[in-house]
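hey all, quick one before standup. I had two proteins in the batch that finished overnight and I want to keep them in one place so we stop losing track of which output belongs to which input. First protein below, input sequence then structure tokens straight from the run.
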Amino acid sequence: MTNTTIGRLIALEGIDGSGKGTQAHLLVEALRRQGHEVEFFSFPAYRQTFTGRLIGTYLDGGLGDPRAIDSRLTALLYATDRFEMRESLRAALSAGHLVVCDRYVGSNLAHQVARAAPRRRPELRAFIETLEFDVFGLPRPDLVVLLDMPVRLAQARVLQKAARNYTHKKLDAAEADARHLKAAAAEYRHHAETDPARWCRVPTTSGRHERARDEIHADVLSTLRHLTMPSFAPLD
């Protein structure tokens, strides 16, 4: 019998160092324990795609000063990385699986729009959404979970990370620019506020203190009520 169930795409978003990778893996494990078929994707796909490797070069400064490159071109670079993975995404969704993404189109919107002058930002938001969803035909996310973290804490967390395969620097071009990260965080919040049916904000701090990993994970699980699927089991 043909499977007519369409899966759901869940994207975890947030500025660099906000814990997206950790929370994405915790979410995948929890969903699999509940019996769901889950596929995991991480963007940029530095090791999997031709464009992912080029993005690593860009972030390491190998294409020149990243700040001097038009944000439409960098948006195209990140979107093309996802386009290379489009058929895998579509296949997982067509099989009725849950798809969890560590970064997705929301990252392109936040980081590339943040690089543009304020007067250009509405035009650039429309450019990126048209490029990703209409031109490249990427599936729209059913749920976007924003891990909201202050820039000062996010940068401190990035400095504690192990070496990355695309750069020898402790902070890549985006991570090192606190002004850019503040603008990207504001852009993320803009989308969470203007599209509350799709976006859910999960705070990662309480006052000046970082919240526990498992406490954040419980909040991430609670956002799944926004999905039009049978209810999920509570955290075990």
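OK second protein, same deal, sequence then tokens:
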Amino acid sequence: MEKTSGFAAFLGQLKISYIFKSLRVRFFFIVFITGLFSCLVMHFVILDSYEDRAVNVKSTEVQTQLRIIANHLIVSNYLTDTSSEVINAELDMLANLYDGRVIVINDSLKVVMDTYHISQGKTIISEEVVDCLKRGSKGSVSKYDRANGYIEIVTPIIETEVIEEEDVSVSGRSGELVRGVLLTSASTDTINTTLTILSRRAATLEIIIILVILVFAAIVSIFLLRPFDRITAAINDVKAGFTDEPIVGPNYHETDQIINAFNALLKRMKVLDDSRQEFVSNVSHELKTPITSMKVLADSLLSMDEVPNEVYREFMSDIGAEIDREDKIINDLLSLVRMDKKASGLNITSVDVVNLTEIVCKRLRPIARQRNIEITLESNRPITAEIDEVKISLVIMNLVENAIKYNREDGWVKVELDADHQFFYVKVSDSGYGIPEDSYDHVFERFYRVDKSRSREIGGTGLGLAIAKSAVLMHRGTIDVTSVVDQGTTFTVKIPLSSAAAQGAMTT
């Protein structure tokens, strides 16, 4: 039973986590909480402002009434004779009007009059009263007691007298004497009642506003995020294979960025898919051609009776050549597949590039001599680089071998090496037939041939430059071609000297 409840709790947490991963849910909560917080802040700010204002107004009103009564107390000499019915009636009326209490205290701290009639004749020692007697004519002081719901006001009873000077030339001046204190408390029940009513009305209004905000947040979260739903649906259609057309959407900056990125990816996928189909088609054609030739030769032999040895040898020689051609295509394909792996498959060592290039040229010179083609190597400085020796030698070999194959009789091939502080350069030039400018972007494609008839005649597979480019890219380098038709071609390879430089080239 415990396992079941634990699993249910886990599922509940998982569901909540899944819900809060939704951008729509998060947007809804942000809008809703923002509106709710604004309502609550306005509620408390308005009610507090009203309360402060109402207390200040009431305090000012009571103080005005107390100053008038204080003047009446001085005029009627009430502090020494409390028999005045008019003053007593005023005090009782003020106490009843503000649902409070009025205490009249003389300068000896003795209670002269108490509207509650419980403290008369007693001596009262209060910090507020003592301060008021000392403070003199500085005015009334009020204090609001929110917890008990009343305002306490201390008002001085001031007598103004004229002091005569002995020198008649000096006019008389007036003085003020504090004869007593009015200690008054005024109830704030009416303010609290009004606050309660306002709070209820505000709560009702807030509920309505919160419901409106709730609906608004839901509508806004749905409508603002609807473009993302359409984009998701369009992407799902592409994923399901219903369409391969670029997706379109509303002209929002955010959705435009997503749409443009996806359309660029879709275009890239189309290019890769077309390249893959073309590659499969080319591989099938290239592998089928030698097999077809061998079958034709074999069928010809089988159809002949009493085949002479010379004819038999000639046919078998042709079949052997086709087998060699098939083997070369397969080996080139395997090399290309290995080149498609990531750079982590590189076997990086410190290599003398000049010595490596000399070895490659030495291997290819016998092939070049068959057509009286001269291979020269020039190096401006010693070059040592952190590279995969096998793959870079394959790059140089393919470039030099192509320069020999697609060259003229009695031509030349020139290999130049150079380096700077970050890269080394291999430049392979020839005096061959050249490459048209519109073929520059295609010469590195698999099975692409500028002149198919000549390529088949010399036995090219159309994979050499693709293999070279893959190896160069694995080293984070570049390979470029320039050519003039009927004058020659130059391939330039640029490769970082170290693996650190390769990483830098990758990030820039």
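Flagging for whoever picks this up: The chain has twelve helices and twelve strands. Residues 165-173, 504-508 have pLDDT under 50 and may be disordered.
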